[in-house]
Amino acid sequence: MIIDFHVHWVPSDVVRDRTKGQDVAVRYEGGVPTYIFHPRLGNLAQHVETMDEAGIDISVLSCGVGFTGTLDDRRRINDRTKEILDKYPGRFVGLAHIPPLGGDEAFRELARAARDLGFKGVAIESDVQGVTLDSRELWPFYRSVQELGLYVFVHPSLKALGIDVMQDYDLARSVGREFGLVMATIRLIDGGVFDEFPRLRVHMSHLGGGIAALLGRIRSYQDKVFWGTAGNERHGRLPKRPLDDYFANLFFDTGGFCGEVNAVRAALLEIPSSQILFGSDYPQEIRSGEAVRTFIQSIEGLDVSADVVRGILADNGRHLIGV
Length: 323
Fold this sequence. Notes:
The protein is an alpha/beta fold and 323 residues long. It has helices spanning 12-19, 44-54, 71-87, 103-115, 139-148, 171-190, 193-196, 206-210, 215-220, 262-270, 289-300, 306-313, 318-321, and strands spanning 3-9, 25-29, 32-37, 58-63, 92-96, 121-125, 127-128, 131-132, 151-155, 202-204, 250-253, 276-277.
């Protein structure tokens, strides 16, 4: 079995409205590209064809236009995701979209998505309208997620923090998004989120923004005495346990690097292999079944055991989606 934990879709009518007959259309915010629309996003039959060509059994769906908008907007996205699950039984798993800061009404929608629609997780961005993931403002959201037995999928913010210094060269998408994921991962740990919600499971996209390459430095800066910040209210804070202990709460998918396998190699040097999930980021960074299959083959060709490969391609995340 192969499970793709990072797959996008957008309703076909939204795609048509955005592209207006063109092959692609890019949404700009403040002069910065934030999202690309193209027909594959709305063609779920083509999603299934691509899965079959690549050998993927199940794909976990999040919606690119579900990270923003009103609660009613996101409720409609949830309902349309459910229609996809019903049309292609057994092939897709749904992730809920709600405004995480939306209070009780939003949490009731989250409960509906879990109990009535059968979704297994909820998708959010690496910051929520500029609110960082360690903020106490988000703790009611985490409490609701934990009580419902869902997991959180963290996608990079489509409008990256620090976007004012990323006005050129498509830096916000190519680099800024990964920076946001690294920061979000550390904030979840050092900010005490997992200490407060020990059963919370969080899936970081894009291998946590390639965090493996930075973990040596990040671990060093946990020594607050050495770096002179012990006792400082903001910079001297530490979680209750060593940083690496919290990897038990975290999962990292292989998307985000356009099918390049070296990022996966780096992750395996620093992150427990049991916490790595296969993700393609189809149909954004990879847009053909052949390319997805090539990526899978490159993972199968890594110098690791067959058990590690099976774990990445399916077994590590089965419990997240109940298969």
